[in-house]
Design goal:
alpha+beta, three-stranded antiparallel β-sheet, 9 strands, globular, cAMP-inducible_BP74-like
Amino acid sequence: MATAYFAFQCPPQQGKEFVFETSDDEIIAHARRVLSGEEKDRTHVMGRIKKSPKPYNPDFDFHLDPATIRFFEVAIEVCDAEPQYVDDHLDEVGGAFLPGGHWCPWASALTREVKH
């Protein structure tokens, strides 16, 4: 299995990209279909937060557990938050804020595949 890295942003907020890692061939193929425009439904990223930084995602003090990455079309509101807000409130993740560490930013839009 190869490892791939993908970046997303959450419009309308511009700026920092959030980067995630995956070695799941199906998720890699799905992400590439999203980037090519072939996949138009399940285009938003979700996964479980790990409260530690990764070198491939230097702007944030957390990352997504690669084994939990999925794509979705719609999700419940309780897991929606902007990346910077999550980073600013990381100590609250897993309680009332983002229960279980599940994160599904509704506005997440893949921007590119990151060559690591």
